[in-house]
Amino acid sequence: MYKKYLKKIFFYFFFVLFLISTLNYIIDPYGYQSRDGKFVKNLTMFNKPNVTSARINSNGYYYLIGSSRMARVDPHMIEIISGKKTHNIKIDGATLIENSLLASKVKEKGNFFIYSFDAFSLNKSREKSKEINNRLRVYEKELIANEYWSRYFNSDITIRSLQHVIKSLKGENISKQFEEENSRNEGFSLNKAFNDSGVSNNLKKANFANFDIYSQQSIIKLAKLGSEKDIFIIFPKYLSYYSLFSKYQNIQSKYFEAIRSLVLNTESKVWFFYGKNGITENINNFIDNGWHFKPQVSNIIFKQVFGDGLKDAEQEYGVLLTKDNVDNYLSKISIEIRAASIDDN
Amino acid sequence: MIFSSYEFIFIFLPLTFCLYFYLNKNKFTNLATGSLAFASLFFYSWWNIIYLPLILVSVTINYLLSQLILRSKLSKLFLLILGVLFNLSLLGFFKYSDFFLQNINLVFDTNYSLLNLVLPLAISFFTFQQIAFLADSYKGHVVKHTFLNYLVFVTFFPQLIAGPIVHHKEMMPQFTEKINKTISYKNIYLGVFIFSIGFFKKAVIADTFSIWASNGFDFMDQLNLIEAWVTSLSYTFQLYFDFSGYTDMAMGAALLFNIKLPINFNSPYKSTNIRDFWKSWHITLSRFLRDYIYIPLGGNKKGSFKMYSNLFTTFLIGGLWHGAGWTFIFWGAMHAFAIIAHRIWTNTGVKLNNIISWFLTFNFINLSWVFFRAEKWEDAIKIIKGMMGLTGVVLPISLQNISFLQQNKIVFGEVFANFNSDTEVILWIAIAFFICLFFKNSNQVLIAYKPSSKIVFFIVLIFVISLMHLDKNVDFIYFNF
User: Fold this and answer.
1) What single-letter DSSP state applies at residue A297?
2) Which of the residues of B are catalytic?
3) Residue B258: its chain A contacts at CB < 8 A?
4) Cα B263 to Cα B284: distance, rounded to the nearest angstrom
5) CA distance A308 to A326
6) Partner B contacted by A155 (CB < 8 A)
């Protein structure tokens, strides 16, 4: 009797295992195999160490590394522009240590990164947060473990697969997440910018509080990781933030010094979208109080990066920093920002 | 490797099982026992092979000492003392030397550098197990065994890392019993059943609570009243489901080899007094502390005062056994006071209503786990201040129109603002309470268990769900002890 029931247990178990794994493999909601026809939210929005690990071990060429700004970059769009397989492995609020870890893993696999060199990621003070430390430990563990077993068999991917099926049956647009963000029109509040960013050092937990930049060695180490085919990008924020960075805690000068170190020590291209221009002056290009650019801006950025040309209004937007122009360009931008007034709608 | 891992479930366990019974079937019984010992040592070395020589040295010396006690003409008491000193020195050196040095530095204002030793896995468990074996050899309660049998008794992988703390009397005969050397489909079935329950407790329930518990302890400075209670209750349930889940998995894995491990949990959170709690929580540790510390100290034979001091000493040692820190010692002292208070109360003959008794007992246990979990004394105090409402009370906005809640100290807003969580945790706590208070425990289920298609469906369901939750990467809590 027990033998019969045991046989049933093993049969049903392996049957269900096979069924769920096959479903998840075919639907592939996180785009491990292909980003085509996948919901953009699943390709960009989630911070999951196991998904990051699976993507790094998948068939990518470019890997998008960065913080929440990188969440507004559709890897499928990069694939179309560059012709290279691309995965998004951003971590919201990432630190330099976390991003460097991801970059080194990407390089270990012989692939290339597109790295968002954010100012607040360079704030070493954020390392004191237990939450960030715990997260780093989990990422380290997951990247070492590289659990192939569970890639297509875990509760999370199963739920995403089922959601994918339901949404597809309902005819939901795969770009819904980005379209919603593109259609949001929000103003800018200086008070909110103060409170959320902590530039004026008024909050313990905020991203820019106690702005203490990582050592030059850490930045040079990251810079040296990059080859000619890797890309660093300094993404845009709403212009008023630049004024705040120039006014408080010497954030801008520390950040520019880090950018200078990066440019002088890397073989990679460093694209610079910071400063006063048609994109950063217009709050309608941003959401979340000017903190994040809209996904539509990422299209403009990457067309520029991959040399797909820009329309008239967007000319002058984005500069390729080189060892020769970095000092002059950063000085020029500093002067422009000093002259700009702070908007407070 | 841990029980709740793919390597253990799909490779290690099936391979060990097949090899063991294949060798037994072909009459290579010693080789079969050897394969079990080898597999157990492999399992132990999986984390870090540097631990392996230590356990081998410990097992060999203890075995030799027990043989000397049984056979030699040397003073048995001397050999026992030597053995106990050896075991305690090993444990003391690896587990307590830094704690000792820290306190020396603090008291005498010295600056001795800490050794920063890596705590060998399961050292607290195999030390206690072997001290018990030596003590029983001294008392003449041990029959002669081969080294291989002794090695398997100490290192048998289902119980090696986090118990139950097994006794040689209940284990060693099982390893030599002939009937246990053939495959028993009934035991495999029961083993799979109880393993699945433990797996679910660990992977689904405990690991879910662990996120909230860790979150709360990470943000202990900012917790409001509800967040602080959620933090403490999350840890209370995490610990129970983690440890009892581990025990169930250990029992299930052992049953595959026809070995019955002793019960370690018996619905402890149903207890209506602290004495009952200790009869149903980590039962094998309580048994060890009673038989090898409390009773040798004199137990309750030498008057009330001596009994209370024996209880106090036993619980302090119990606290220290769990970890080298003042928070663990304080936790042990809290339980000692509670046990003594309960004895005194019982002597008065006054009986409390069961619900009130349960409420007091559960809240005491919940409070004591805060000290058990906290890394530092100040951390525990911060959580307790939060639980007392001293760091602010935030209630949902939906309650702001209720007149008696409109006091100065109450703020209406986002209850879990600092917690990085949502109200889902409240639902989980309610479910956990319900399971702990109204469900039969694994042992009760196992006794009343009759195989059926419904049970097959249940096993497959919980096993698959548990397997799908394996991506959380959380170790068993009791591995640290």
Assistant:
1) H
2) 322
3) none
4) 8
5) 23
6) yes
Taking alpha carbons only, the member of A175, A168, A320, A108 closest to residue A233 is A320
Query: Greatest CA separation found in chain B?
Result: 83
pLDDT digits (tens, 9 = 90+) for B9-43: 999 999 999 999 999 999 899 999 999 999 999 99
How far CA B101 is from CA of B83, B89, B124, B371, in Å, comes to 25, 15, 20, 22
User: Which of helix, strand or coil describes residue A179?
Assistant: helix
Give residue A108's identity as a one-letter amino acid code: E
Return the SS3 of A321: strand
Contacts with B203 from chain A: Cβ below 8 Å? none
Residue from A8, A115, A28, A129 nearest A65 by CA: A115
Nearest to A94 by CA among A119, A72, A67, A76: A67
CA–CA gap between residue B254 and residue A163 (Å, rounded) = 40
**pLDDT < 70 regions, chain A:** 198-206, 308-316, 341-345
Taking only the tens place, the pLDDT of each residue in B88-128 is 999 999 999 999 999 999 999 888 888 888 888 889 889 98
Cα–Cα dist A337/A339, whole Å: 5
Q: Give the residue extent of every domain in chain B.
A: 6-186, 197-480
Q: Report the 10 Å Cβ neighbour count for B20.
A: 22
What number of other Cβ atoms are within 10 A of residue B366's Cβ?
A: 17
Q: Cα separation of B292 and B318, whole Å?
A: 12
Would you give the distance in Å from CA A243 to the centre of its chain?
23
**B190 min Cα distance to partner chain A (Å):** 9
3-state secondary structure of A269: strand
As a whole number of angstroms, the distance between CA A333 and CA B40 comes to 65
* CB-side neighbour CA atoms (13 Å) of B115: 13
Query: Which one of A8, A134, A158 has the shortest CB-CB distance to B218?
Result: A134
- DSSP, residue by residue, A40-105: HHHHHT---HHHHHHHHTSS-SEEEE-SGGGGG--HHHHHHHH-S-EEE---TT--HHHHHHHHHH
Among B459, B469, B473, the residue with its CB nearest the CB of A142 is B473
| DSSP state letters, A13-49 | HHHHHHHHHHHHHHH-TT-SS--TT--HHHHHT---H
Contacts of A143 in chain B (CB under 8 A): none
Peptide bond into B268 cis (omega under 30): no
Percent of chain B with pLDDT over 70: 96
Report the C-alpha gap between B236 and B454 in whole angstroms. Answer: 31
Tokens representing B405 are 């809640």
Q: Which residues contact A116 (CB under 8 A, 6 or more apart)?
A: A64, A65, A66, A67, A69, A70, A90, A233, A234, A235
**Gyration radius of chain B's alpha carbons:** 24
Q: Which of B456, B459, B468 sits opposite A158 (nearest CB)?
A: B468
Between B80-94, B182-196, B467-481, the lowest mean confidence (pLDDT) is in: B467-481
- The CB-side HSE value for B206 (13 A sphere, CA atoms) comes to 25
CB-based contact A130 B188, cutoff 8 Å: no
Cα end-to-end span (Å), chain B = 17
DSSP letter for each residue of B209-273: HHHHHHHHHHTGGG--HHHHHHHHHHHHHHHHHHHHHHHHHHHHHHHHTT-PPPP--S-GGG-SS
CA angle A260, A278, A322 (to 5 degrees): 25
Q: Tell me how many degrees the CA angle A276-A278-A282 measures, rounded to the nearest 5.
A: 90
ipTM over 0.85: no
The contacts found for A16-20 with CB under 8 angstroms, 24 or more apart, are: A16/B460, A16/B464, A17/A153, A17/B464, A17/B467, A20/A153, A20/A158, A20/B464, A20/B468
The mean pLDDT of B417-445, rounded to a whole number, is 85
Structure confidence by residue, pLDDT tens digits, B313-366:
999 999 999 988 999 999 999 999 999 999 999 999 888 899 999 999 999 999
**A47 in B contact zone (CB under 8 Å):** no
On whether the CB atoms of residues A2 and B449 are closer than 8 A, the answer is: no
